[in-house]
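Narrative summary of target 7.
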Amino acid sequence: MNYTILLFEDEIELREDIQESIESDYIVVYSFSSWKEYTEMEIPDKPDLAILDLNLLDRDGLSIFHDLREQYTDLEGIIMTGQANLQIAIESIKLGVIDFIEKPFRACELRMAIHSTESYKQYQIKKYVVDRQLEESKKSFEAHWGVEFVGVSQSIKDINTLMKRVAKADTTSVMVTGESGSGKELIARGIHSMSDRRNAPFYPVNCTAIPDSLFESEFFGYQKGAFTGALTNHEGWFERANGGTLFLDEIGDMNLALQAKLLRVLDERKVTRIGSHEIINVNARIVCATNKDLRQMIEDGLFRLDLFHRLNSFHIHLPPLRERAEDIPVLVNHFVKLYAETHNKDIQSIHSKAMNLLINHHYAGNIRELRNIIERAILMCDSRILKASHLHFPEEDNYHEDTTPNPTLEDVERETILSAIKACNNNKTHTAERLNITRQALNRKLKKHGIE
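Modeled conformation, tokenized:
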């Protein structure tokens, strides 16, 4: 949902300055030097407001606004001029122009004029409603499935696509690989939530946490009286996940004998509780995860090849956080907002030095480590700005915020753009999409940073 502005100004530097000052995440600006240039461009969105210089190269701004109102009856207008007089003001009002700004003006004056327009007020009301709906949906999702999978890198986009595809394949087993703390369980939960099994149980099991001596009783379940201490009937993993998804985390830590028993259940889709002769049919989708190299374990005789192929019908690999640095600012903002709300802190922004430290940290513990760093920083912060001094990196204890030189926001922006251009093989259209900005905004930033 965007608020769309048409900007007509024939002085290129002023036009770029105006566009830079008013464009935002939700305000989209299409700029033109003339009426002819406007007619040659296709505008994908219905415009809400036109900002027009009174004297353009081929026509005057008032006549252009008149023609625009013929096409867009609800369009509002703001006229800019360095030759203000009463007659022009009267003609502007007759045409329905809602504001009249005399050059030279400050950017804040133009932004105030935009905010005062009726269409912008209505847009803000609609945006507030939509944002509230999205926020409620997000809270509902997080409450049920855990923290959502956040990221803007191409690898995360590819993973989300794979998740959606395999979610529709109801019985396909999924193998998720990646380092500890990278978010493998979130992928499993996401697949479950997008599948037809979403209303059935999602049952996670950490294979490392189950001692071998208790594996069978937990895996198969048991009947009351089956052994000393069996005081009640106990459902096994497959029964608890029946109709839903069974998530087996750290599958590489399961010993060979237990692997054989797991393979038999996967093949037969039947279990029998310890102490019982009753055969129970089970229908659970299997998603497993590991941070180990299972192929090497197979060569070393530590993991069954047949079980590997049974579990690895569909493979998703989650790269470590340090290999997708463009996701870090998004994750940082997500966790800052999350933990500021959790701990009732009024934190409005993050200092550029703090963000730079977070972007360049190694993250051996991946997203889990980043989340813990942010939560601790939130607890340490008593101001509205999260600073580098609030962070704690054991290997960076000698860092001094006031003395150690760090890149500015301009430096970070330039490096982010260079990284995106490289990832997109110098394709500006793809680079703009990757950065979630317009092609025009990208061109201005390239010019500003002297990037060819």
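The longest strand covers residues 3-8.
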